[in-house]
Amino acid sequence: TPFLDALVGRFCSQPDLFVTQGLSITAWAITTLEADGARHPHFYRVLEIEATRRLAEFNQQSLSNIAWCFATANVHVPSLFKAIANATVAIQDEMLPQSLHNVLWAFARQSYAHDRLFSSLMPRIIANANQMTPQSLVGTVWAYAALGYSAPRLFRAFAIEAHRRLPELSAQGLANLGWAYAVVDVQGSEVDQLFEDGAFAERCRIVIADAKSFGVDGSRSKYKEHLRQLHQWELWRRVRASEAVQRGGRAWPPVSEELRSACARVFASTAGRPSQFQRQVLDGVLALGIAAEEEVLTQEGYSLDIVLPHSLPADLADTLERIEQSKPAAAHRSGEDATAATRGRKGSSDGGGDAYACGEQAKEAGA
């Protein structure tokens, strides 16, 4: 609009006219009106320069506003975000729960992991969980899960609060909540309490499967991501149900059959997009005479990049066996070099309070 263009022009030409608080408020207003950094890229370049220069003057609200602006506009500024993380940790005792959530959400939205930030803020976030809005409550666990931080103490504490606030959660909130817990795979009585009484499944039936909100077949794209996320929760629920039965415990109730079917259809309909590296690997496998398949859809709806046959050509199998036997013992991956996913699973079961990375589990972010 002419007004927005004029405001951006004034800001970019004379940023010094804006006091620090005015800088963050103006940035928030422009981003809210635009919601896409592509239209005024120069504005975000100037904002980055000014925010970096004045960061020491920012209060807690200004810090969270600036982080939110860049994340919402999808403008990546790693150096500024690193400075924002350090500044947030330094003044965390002054920050309101909403501001803390905004910062964490912004980092997750930018896929920018910062171990010190997420670990340092966790005690304060847990202590203030009951002061958060339902959106902030869910957004916080989504942020930890999306970046691969499995924080058992936080997820258990938030499970208690989330159960109390279930009637307040929207379709997006329910989907994000279920997805986040499925990703980190945290176990505990608090998590059981969140899901085992059927309140979560019933709320999903009322809110997500409501025909007034969207077609159960997922025809409205706005809700397709919610269905995909809920399908991942359902897959996790099945695993946990099997474990519970083996222990003689109680399985969590599933969502309705109609909703489960809709979730599975939408999840399975997501076409795989092979990367160039995947193509190169497949070409190499085929060149070895192996009849591999690409993008194979499982019954659960997952797409497997490359699937090898049950048996390999005899000469190739012999070669691979000789190579494996020739490897020195030191070449095997040690505990120190374990994958992020392994560390995440360890962290989710040891009862500790630190944040652990659970990398490859966090592939579908939805907030």
Task: Detail the topology: elements first, then pairings.
Elements: H1 2-13, H2 20-34, H3 41-54, H4 60-72, H5 78-90, H6 97-109, H7 115-127, H8 134-146, E1 149-150, H9 152-164, H10 171-184, H11 189-196, H12 199-207, H13 224-246, H14 257-269, H15 276-287, E2 293-297, E3 303-307, H16 314-326, H17 340-347, E4 356-357
Antiparallel strand pairs: 1-4, 2-3
Helix pairs in contact: 1-2, 1-3, 2-3, 2-4, 4-6, 5-7, 6-7, 6-8, 7-9, 8-9, 8-10, 9-11, 10-13, 13-14
What would you note in describing this structure?
InterPro entries: FAST_kinase, RESC6_dom. Pfam families: RESC6 (PF26188). This is RNA-editing substrate-binding complex 6 protein domain-containing protein. The protein is mainly α and 367 residues long. The protein has 3 domains: 1-117, no CATH class; 133-270 and 341-367, no CATH class; 276-311, no CATH class. The chain is built from 17 helices and 4 strands. A two-stranded antiparallel ribbon has the order 1-4. Helix 1 runs antiparallel to helix 2, helix 6 runs antiparallel to helix 7 (115-127) and helix 7 packs across helix 9. The longest helix has 23 residues, at 224-246. It is globular and about 75 Å long. The two termini are 28 Å apart.
